[in-house]
Design a protein that fits this description.
The protein is an alpha/beta fold. It is built from six helices and nine strands.
Length: 224
């Protein structure tokens, strides 16, 4: 089953993801247009968001009805081969945005992480040896859960892995009217340097729109 993957980010005009104020209402207000079946979030992104600590409950089994019965909500899907979200998943699934969660693991994922996921009624897909094979994992998401549209809500590392693997169909960027500068920018596309021009990703313009607060929204199709 073909899965459409959309990268959706807000950056400064010079392409940074950090330091400038983000209009979250504007950013997330656009998301319903894609009718996503799954939100693909990076572990780094989720760990950077402060949630209420509940360490005393992280090893207690969750109730079977923890996830939402509203099938119109997307799944929360997180590649996490190292099990870094152990102790965090159950907190994220208390949020009202998703109907359930799926952890993407590999054969190197610690057994303790699988036990934690099992205790909290969180599904998982194992794909890849030392790290998650994103292509195989997305194929399994489609086969097992009927996922056809995935929106990546992440930083540059996961975006970069998806782009380098040729898995992205659309790139959506909101350019916020700020310049940040710096020599160590957090950009929307973080990946190893290319060794030839063959790895350059070509884009085709789909739409340009000026939104509130001088934000410019640009959408591109990834040319395969």
């Amino acid at each position: 089953m073909f899965t459409k993957v959309i990268l959706h980010n807000m950056t400064s005009v010079d392409g940074r993801l950090d330091w400038f104020p983000v209009n979250m209402e504007l950013f997330y207000g656009l998301i319903p247009m894609w009718q996503e079946d799954a939100t693909l979030a990076g572990a780094d992104t989720l760990l950077a968001v402060p949630l209420e600590e509940a360490d005393e409950t992280q090893n207690e089994p969750s109730e079977p009805d923890q996830t939402s019965s509203d099938n119109t909500k997307p799944l929360l899907v997180v590649p996490d081969s190292k099990g870094r979200l152990r102790g965090h998943w159950h907190l994220w699934l208390k949020q009202p945005y998703w109907r359930g969660g799926v952890a993407l693991c590999s054969k190197s994922t610690p057994s303790e992480y699988y036990e934690y996921l099992k205790q909290h009624n969180i599904d998982w897909i194992t794909a890849g040896e030392d790290k998650v094979d994103l292509k195989a994992a997305l194929e399994e998401l489609g086969s097992r859960y009927g996922v056809k549209v995935v929106r990546a809500d992440s930083g540059g590392r996961l975006n970069g892995a998806l782009l380098r693997a040729g898995l992205v169909s659309e790139v959506s960027v909101l350019f916020s009217p700020y310049l940040v500068g710096g020599i160590t920018p957090k950009s929307i596309f973080a990946a190893p340097d290319l060794e030839s021009e063959e790895g350059i990703i070509q884009l085709k313009l789909l739409a340009v729109e000026t939104l509130d607060d001088s934000v410019v929204w640009v959408r591109y199709e990834v040319v395969k």
